[in-house]
Amino acid sequence: MLSRVARRAFSTSRINPYKVTVLGAGGGIGQPLSLLLKLNHKVTDLRLYDLKGAHGVAADLSHIPTNSVVKGFTPEEKDGLKQALDKTDVVLIPAGVPRKPGMTRDDLFSINASIVRDLAAAVAESAPEAAVLVISNPVNSTVPIVAEVLKSKGVYNPKKLFGVTTLDVIRASRFISQVENTDPTTEHVTVVGGHSGITIIPLLSQTKHKMLDKETRDALIHRIQFGGDEVVKAKNGAGSATLSMAQAGAKFANAVLAGLEGERDVIQPSFVDSPLYKSEGIDFFASKVLLGPQGVEKIFPVGEISSEEEELLAKCKETLKKNIEKGEKFVTQA
């Protein structure tokens, strides 16, 4: 017989089925991300959309025995995108082109900006109340694009728009564990700022590893900031970080769903509309946020940091402001 706690947990999972949509489900991130979402017991209705291949991915995943229905949608069918988004609770956007050797996330802007803009318009029309999780790079610019599109449609809710920066956090945990020879599952590194190069700031001074020598610390920070380059180089033109990004996206999506369910103390980092540096003209900033039924419940300050991290933060804000403005102008001046 189930205990009272077990019955309540079972009942909650049955009462709160969630509809989740992946836009770009056939891509390098989209496929493993969709797999991980299929395995998530909170997801009972999984919609997969892409220009092609979504039906095949959906058919493949539908054979996995979890309590969710998977459907694929493409532009070839009437209102395919609209059907994929209809009354969905959470939208994940990994759509776009991957990085190639020598490319930065900003190099992707000219292609991915248009893709994200058009998908955001569809979200505004068909799922205006959904939580929107942006994975498509450059996140520092694509999140502001989504915000401007939603504003233009009169449905912008800053509490439900997220840039997924979780990959920076899981990399930080893994990389610091390799330096310190610890269990990576026990490492917790707060990463703030943005999601590209020098805008990524791992707050090592807030970890238990405060005594790293300067050379080791500098190398670790650089690796966290530019870890994606390792994958791009290793794949030799065949793509960028897809599997680790899928894991990061699924982890953050699960946190958002947990917040929507009303679970307490769900705290994750994210690039969100933030008051922390608005006085300096920076509308979005990544930091830890408390997630709840309405989306963002609380945005945490950066906290006490070292003088070195203060310098990193100053450089971050210079670049971040330009990235954000680039995304906003892409929509407003179109």
UniProtKB/TrEMBL annotation:
Catalytic activity, per the record?
(S)-malate + NAD(+) = oxaloacetate + NADH + H(+)
Tell me any Pfam family this protein matches.
Ldh_1_C
Q: Name one GO molecular function term.
A: L-malate dehydrogenase (NAD+) activity
PROSITE patterns the record matches: MDH (PS00068)
Residue sites binding NAD(+) per the record = 24-30, 50, 112, 135-137, 245
Keyword terms, alphabetized: NAD, Oxidoreductase, Tricarboxylic acid cycle
Record-linked InterPro entries: L-lactate/malate_DH, Lactate/malate_DH_C, Lactate/malate_DH_N, Lactate_DH/Glyco_Ohase_4_C, Malate_DH_AS, Malate_DH_type1, NAD(P)-bd_dom_sf
Segments passing through the bilayer: none
Q: Where is the Lactate/malate dehydrogenase N-terminal domain?
A: 19-163
Q: Which GO terms describe its cellular component?
A: mitochondrion
Q: What is its EC number?
A: 1.1.1.37
Q: Tell me the Gene Ontology biological-process terms attached to this UniProt entry.
A: malate metabolic process; tricarboxylic acid cycle
Q: Where, by residue number, does substrate bind?
A: 99, 105, 137, 171
SUPFAM superfamilies associated with the record: LDH C-terminal domain-like, NAD(P)-binding Rossmann-fold domains
Active site (UniProt): 195
Lactate/malate dehydrogenase C-terminal domain span: 165-331
Q: Which family does it belong to?
A: Belongs to the LDH/MDH superfamily. MDH type 1 family.
- Matching NCBIfam families: MDH_euk_gproteo (TIGR01772)
Q: What is said about its interaction partners and assembly?
A: Homodimer.
Protein name, per record: Malate dehydrogenase
- Look up and give the organism this protein is from: Lachancea mirantina
